[in-house]
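To whoever picks this up:

The nightly regression suite flagged Sugar ABC transporter permease as changed. Nothing in the input moved, so I suspect the structure step. Input below, exactly as stored in the fixture:
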Amino acid sequence: MAATTGTRPAAAPVEEPSGAARGRRPIAWYAYLALLPLLVVLALFQYYPALNGMVRSFWDWNPGQVSTFVGLDNYAKMLEDDIWWRSFRNLGYIFVFGIVSWVIPLVAAELLITLRSQRAQFVYRTLLILPMAFPGVVTALVWSFMYHPNNGVINRALTAVGLEGLTRNWVGDPSYALWSLLFIGFPFIAGLPFLIFYSTLQNIPREIFEAAALDGVGRIRRFWTVDLPLMARQVRLLFFLAVIGTLQYGFMAYIVTSGGPDNSTMVPVLRMINVAFQGQDWGYAATLSTTLFVFTLVLSAVVVFVRRSDSSSTNVRGLR
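Regenerated output under the current build:
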Protein backbone atom coordinates (compact mmCIF):
# COMPACT_ATOMS: atom_id res chain seq x y z
CA MET A 1 0.00 0.00 0.00
CA ALA A 2 1.58 3.18 -1.15
CA ALA A 3 1.98 5.89 1.42
CA THR A 4 0.34 9.12 0.51
CA THR A 5 2.29 12.23 1.11
CA GLY A 6 0.38 15.42 1.80
CA THR A 7 1.73 18.87 1.00
CA ARG A 8 1.27 21.59 3.53
CA PRO A 9 1.06 25.22 2.40
CA ALA A 10 4.14 27.18 3.24
CA ALA A 11 3.68 29.52 6.15
CA ALA A 12 3.80 33.19 5.29
CA PRO A 13 7.03 34.76 6.42
CA VAL A 14 6.67 36.90 9.47
CA GLU A 15 8.11 40.34 8.94
CA GLU A 16 10.20 41.42 11.84
CA PRO A 17 10.04 45.07 12.77
CA SER A 18 12.88 47.18 11.60
CA GLY A 19 15.50 48.42 13.97
CA ALA A 20 13.93 51.86 14.17
CA ALA A 21 10.44 50.49 14.82
CA ARG A 22 11.76 47.88 17.28
CA GLY A 23 13.60 50.55 19.26
CA ARG A 24 10.69 53.01 19.30
CA ARG A 25 8.72 52.98 22.53
CA PRO A 26 5.53 54.81 23.29
CA ILE A 27 6.03 57.95 25.33
CA ALA A 28 4.02 58.15 28.51
CA TRP A 29 1.48 60.96 28.57
CA TYR A 30 2.96 62.54 31.67
CA ALA A 31 6.27 63.05 29.83
CA TYR A 32 4.57 65.80 27.85
CA LEU A 33 4.15 67.72 31.11
CA ALA A 34 7.79 68.70 30.68
CA LEU A 35 6.64 71.01 27.87
CA LEU A 36 4.20 72.78 30.16
CA PRO A 37 6.68 75.43 31.43
CA LEU A 38 7.64 76.28 27.85
CA LEU A 39 3.98 76.60 26.83
CA VAL A 40 3.32 78.89 29.80
CA VAL A 41 6.26 81.13 28.88
CA LEU A 42 5.14 81.28 25.24
CA ALA A 43 1.59 82.10 26.27
CA LEU A 44 2.66 84.89 28.62
CA PHE A 45 5.35 86.55 26.52
CA GLN A 46 4.35 85.74 22.93
CA TYR A 47 0.67 84.97 22.44
CA TYR A 48 -0.87 87.18 25.13
CA PRO A 49 0.92 90.42 24.06
CA ALA A 50 0.02 89.76 20.40
CA LEU A 51 -3.65 89.04 21.13
CA ASN A 52 -3.85 91.95 23.56
CA GLY A 53 -2.45 94.28 20.91
CA MET A 54 -5.14 93.16 18.46
CA VAL A 55 -7.85 93.83 21.03
CA ARG A 56 -6.36 97.22 21.95
CA SER A 57 -6.47 98.30 18.30
CA PHE A 58 -10.19 98.96 18.84
CA TRP A 59 -9.55 101.22 21.81
CA ASP A 60 -8.15 104.66 22.56
CA TRP A 61 -5.59 102.90 24.68
CA ASN A 62 -3.92 104.78 27.53
CA PRO A 63 -1.78 102.33 29.54
CA GLY A 64 -2.34 102.79 33.25
CA GLN A 65 -5.30 105.10 32.67
CA VAL A 66 -8.88 104.88 31.51
CA SER A 67 -9.19 103.58 27.94
CA THR A 68 -12.17 104.25 25.67
CA PHE A 69 -13.60 101.85 23.11
CA VAL A 70 -13.56 103.54 19.68
CA GLY A 71 -14.46 100.63 17.40
CA LEU A 72 -13.08 101.03 13.89
CA ASP A 73 -12.05 104.68 14.30
CA ASN A 74 -8.36 103.77 14.45
CA TYR A 75 -8.66 101.78 11.22
CA ALA A 76 -10.45 104.67 9.52
CA LYS A 77 -7.61 106.92 10.66
CA MET A 78 -5.12 104.47 9.20
CA LEU A 79 -6.76 104.65 5.78
CA GLU A 80 -6.08 108.40 5.70
CA ASP A 81 -2.50 108.12 6.97
CA ASP A 82 -0.35 109.13 3.99
CA ILE A 83 2.91 108.46 5.84
CA TRP A 84 1.81 104.90 6.62
CA TRP A 85 0.96 104.01 3.02
CA ARG A 86 4.03 105.82 1.66
CA SER A 87 6.14 103.58 3.90
CA PHE A 88 4.84 100.55 1.97
CA ARG A 89 6.02 102.14 -1.24
CA ASN A 90 9.49 102.34 0.30
CA LEU A 91 9.15 98.69 1.27
CA GLY A 92 8.47 97.89 -2.38
CA TYR A 93 11.73 99.56 -3.39
CA ILE A 94 13.59 97.71 -0.64
CA PHE A 95 12.13 94.36 -1.69
CA VAL A 96 12.91 94.78 -5.40
CA PHE A 97 16.42 96.02 -4.66
CA GLY A 98 17.01 93.09 -2.33
CA ILE A 99 15.95 90.57 -5.00
CA VAL A 100 18.12 92.23 -7.66
CA SER A 101 21.11 92.27 -5.29
CA TRP A 102 21.07 88.45 -5.22
CA VAL A 103 22.96 88.59 -8.51
CA ILE A 104 26.22 89.46 -6.71
CA PRO A 105 26.25 86.59 -4.17
CA LEU A 106 25.07 84.22 -6.90
CA VAL A 107 27.98 85.18 -9.14
CA ALA A 108 30.35 84.89 -6.17
CA ALA A 109 29.06 81.38 -5.43
CA GLU A 110 29.39 80.36 -9.08
CA LEU A 111 32.99 81.60 -9.19
CA LEU A 112 33.85 79.96 -5.88
CA ILE A 113 32.81 76.45 -6.91
CA THR A 114 35.00 76.68 -10.02
CA LEU A 115 38.11 76.65 -7.82
CA ARG A 116 39.67 73.20 -7.93
CA SER A 117 41.65 73.64 -4.73
CA GLN A 118 39.59 72.86 -1.63
CA ARG A 119 41.96 74.96 0.46
CA ALA A 120 41.43 77.96 -1.80
CA GLN A 121 37.67 77.49 -1.59
CA PHE A 122 37.87 77.40 2.20
CA VAL A 123 39.99 80.56 2.40
CA TYR A 124 37.83 82.59 0.03
CA ARG A 125 34.61 81.29 1.57
CA THR A 126 35.81 82.32 5.02
CA LEU A 127 36.80 85.79 3.82
CA LEU A 128 33.46 86.29 2.08
CA ILE A 129 31.28 85.32 5.04
CA LEU A 130 33.49 86.81 7.78
CA PRO A 131 31.52 90.12 7.87
CA MET A 132 28.49 88.14 9.08
CA ALA A 133 30.25 87.87 12.45
CA PHE A 134 29.89 91.61 13.05
CA PRO A 135 26.67 92.81 14.73
CA GLY A 136 24.22 94.67 12.53
CA VAL A 137 24.43 97.79 14.69
CA VAL A 138 28.19 97.96 14.03
CA THR A 139 27.58 97.77 10.28
CA ALA A 140 24.95 100.51 10.49
CA LEU A 141 27.21 102.84 12.49
CA VAL A 142 30.20 102.28 10.21
CA TRP A 143 28.15 103.13 7.13
CA SER A 144 26.73 106.18 8.92
CA PHE A 145 30.28 107.46 9.41
CA MET A 146 31.06 106.70 5.77
CA TYR A 147 28.03 108.73 4.67
CA HIS A 148 28.91 111.73 6.85
CA PRO A 149 28.69 114.87 4.66
CA ASN A 150 31.89 116.48 6.00
CA ASN A 151 34.21 113.79 7.31
CA GLY A 152 32.76 110.72 5.63
CA VAL A 153 35.01 108.35 3.72
CA ILE A 154 32.91 108.54 0.55
CA ASN A 155 32.95 112.32 0.22
CA ARG A 156 36.60 112.53 1.20
CA ALA A 157 37.52 109.94 -1.43
CA LEU A 158 35.57 111.84 -4.09
CA THR A 159 37.28 115.07 -3.09
CA ALA A 160 40.72 113.44 -3.17
CA VAL A 161 40.28 112.37 -6.80
CA GLY A 162 38.93 115.75 -7.88
CA LEU A 163 35.23 114.86 -7.98
CA GLU A 164 33.97 117.39 -5.46
CA GLY A 165 30.87 117.93 -7.58
CA LEU A 166 29.70 114.40 -6.78
CA THR A 167 29.81 114.82 -3.01
CA ARG A 168 26.39 114.68 -1.38
CA ASN A 169 24.69 114.72 1.97
CA TRP A 170 23.91 111.08 1.38
CA VAL A 171 21.47 110.39 4.22
CA GLY A 172 20.40 114.00 4.74
CA ASP A 173 19.02 114.61 1.26
CA PRO A 174 15.56 113.10 0.58
CA SER A 175 16.61 112.39 -3.02
CA TYR A 176 19.50 110.12 -1.97
CA ALA A 177 18.59 108.91 1.53
CA LEU A 178 16.68 105.77 0.50
CA TRP A 179 19.29 104.74 -2.06
CA SER A 180 22.04 105.29 0.49
CA LEU A 181 20.14 103.09 2.92
CA LEU A 182 19.76 100.35 0.32
CA PHE A 183 23.49 100.24 -0.45
CA ILE A 184 24.46 99.57 3.17
CA GLY A 185 26.26 96.25 3.17
CA PHE A 186 27.47 96.45 -0.43
CA PRO A 187 28.50 94.14 -2.15
CA PHE A 188 25.88 92.04 -0.27
CA ILE A 189 27.90 88.81 -0.34
CA ALA A 190 28.12 88.16 3.39
CA GLY A 191 24.59 86.95 3.93
CA LEU A 192 22.12 84.10 3.76
CA PRO A 193 21.66 84.16 -0.07
CA PHE A 194 25.36 83.49 -0.65
CA LEU A 195 25.39 80.60 1.83
CA ILE A 196 22.32 79.01 0.25
CA PHE A 197 23.56 79.47 -3.33
CA TYR A 198 27.01 78.12 -2.49
CA SER A 199 25.77 75.10 -0.52
CA THR A 200 23.31 74.22 -3.28
CA LEU A 201 25.93 74.43 -6.03
CA GLN A 202 28.40 72.49 -3.91
CA ASN A 203 25.92 69.62 -3.49
CA ILE A 204 25.33 69.25 -7.23
CA PRO A 205 27.18 66.10 -8.40
CA ARG A 206 30.33 66.86 -10.35
CA GLU A 207 29.26 64.37 -12.99
CA ILE A 208 26.52 66.78 -14.09
CA PHE A 209 29.03 69.57 -14.65
CA GLU A 210 31.40 67.22 -16.45
CA ALA A 211 28.61 65.92 -18.70
CA ALA A 212 27.61 69.50 -19.54
CA ALA A 213 31.22 70.34 -20.38
CA LEU A 214 31.50 67.29 -22.66
CA ASP A 215 28.36 68.43 -24.48
CA GLY A 216 30.01 71.77 -25.14
CA VAL A 217 27.79 73.75 -22.77
CA GLY A 218 29.41 77.05 -21.82
CA ARG A 219 29.34 78.66 -18.41
CA ILE A 220 26.48 81.04 -19.13
CA ARG A 221 24.35 78.41 -20.83
CA ARG A 222 25.09 75.94 -18.04
CA PHE A 223 23.88 78.47 -15.50
CA TRP A 224 20.50 78.87 -17.23
CA THR A 225 19.97 75.21 -18.14
CA VAL A 226 21.59 73.34 -15.24
CA ASP A 227 22.46 75.44 -12.21
CA LEU A 228 19.40 77.64 -11.98
CA PRO A 229 16.80 74.84 -12.41
CA LEU A 230 18.55 72.82 -9.70
CA MET A 231 18.41 75.86 -7.40
CA ALA A 232 14.73 76.60 -8.02
CA ARG A 233 13.56 75.28 -4.66
CA GLN A 234 16.19 77.25 -2.77
CA VAL A 235 15.31 80.40 -4.71
CA ARG A 236 11.67 80.01 -3.71
CA LEU A 237 12.76 79.63 -0.09
CA LEU A 238 14.82 82.81 -0.33
CA PHE A 239 11.87 84.61 -1.89
CA PHE A 240 9.67 83.58 1.03
CA LEU A 241 12.26 84.77 3.55
CA ALA A 242 12.68 88.02 1.61
CA VAL A 243 8.95 88.74 1.84
CA ILE A 244 8.93 88.24 5.61
CA GLY A 245 12.20 90.09 6.14
CA THR A 246 11.10 93.08 4.09
CA LEU A 247 7.84 93.48 6.01
CA GLN A 248 9.85 93.45 9.24
CA TYR A 249 12.52 95.82 7.93
CA GLY A 250 13.27 98.77 10.16
CA PHE A 251 16.40 98.19 12.22
CA MET A 252 18.85 99.70 9.74
CA ALA A 253 16.59 102.64 8.92
CA TYR A 254 16.07 103.39 12.62
CA ILE A 255 19.80 103.64 13.32
CA VAL A 256 20.90 105.47 10.17
CA THR A 257 18.03 107.81 9.25
CA SER A 258 15.21 107.33 11.80
CA GLY A 259 12.83 107.42 8.85
CA GLY A 260 13.95 110.83 7.62
CA PRO A 261 14.63 113.17 6.07
CA ASP A 262 11.06 114.20 5.29
CA ASN A 263 9.90 110.59 5.78
CA SER A 264 11.81 109.54 2.67
CA THR A 265 13.08 106.38 4.37
CA MET A 266 10.00 105.68 6.50
CA VAL A 267 8.95 102.03 6.73
CA PRO A 268 5.89 100.52 8.48
CA VAL A 269 7.83 99.34 11.54
CA LEU A 270 9.30 102.81 12.08
CA ARG A 271 5.92 104.46 11.58
CA MET A 272 4.44 102.18 14.21
CA ILE A 273 7.27 102.95 16.67
CA ASN A 274 6.99 106.70 16.11
CA VAL A 275 3.23 106.68 16.67
CA ALA A 276 3.63 104.71 19.89
CA PHE A 277 6.65 106.32 21.55
CA GLN A 278 6.65 109.82 20.09
CA GLY A 279 2.96 110.41 19.51
CA GLN A 280 1.90 108.39 22.58
CA ASP A 281 -1.06 107.09 20.55
CA TRP A 282 -0.92 103.49 21.72
CA GLY A 283 -4.27 102.43 20.34
CA TYR A 284 -3.43 103.64 16.85
CA ALA A 285 0.01 101.99 17.10
CA ALA A 286 -1.75 98.72 17.96
CA THR A 287 -3.89 99.19 14.86
CA LEU A 288 -0.82 99.62 12.67
CA SER A 289 0.88 96.57 14.20
CA THR A 290 -2.25 94.46 13.73
CA THR A 291 -2.52 95.51 10.09
CA LEU A 292 1.15 94.73 9.50
CA PHE A 293 0.64 91.32 11.11
CA VAL A 294 -2.31 90.58 8.82
CA PHE A 295 -0.30 91.62 5.74
CA THR A 296 2.58 89.38 6.82
CA LEU A 297 0.27 86.45 7.51
CA VAL A 298 -1.54 86.75 4.17
CA LEU A 299 1.63 87.09 2.09
CA SER A 300 3.27 84.21 3.96
CA ALA A 301 0.24 82.01 3.31
CA VAL A 302 0.28 82.90 -0.39
CA VAL A 303 3.99 82.13 -0.75
CA VAL A 304 3.65 78.82 1.14
CA PHE A 305 0.65 77.83 -1.01
CA VAL A 306 2.57 78.60 -4.20
CA ARG A 307 5.57 76.59 -2.96
CA ARG A 308 3.39 73.59 -2.14
CA SER A 309 1.62 73.81 -5.49
CA ASP A 310 4.95 73.86 -7.30
CA SER A 311 6.20 70.90 -5.26
CA SER A 312 3.03 68.91 -5.98
CA SER A 313 3.23 69.59 -9.71
CA THR A 314 6.89 68.62 -9.71
CA ASN A 315 6.11 65.32 -7.99
CA VAL A 316 3.32 64.58 -10.46
CA ARG A 317 5.62 65.20 -13.41
CA GLY A 318 8.20 62.94 -11.79
CA LEU A 319 5.70 60.10 -11.48
CA ARG A 320 4.78 60.42 -15.13
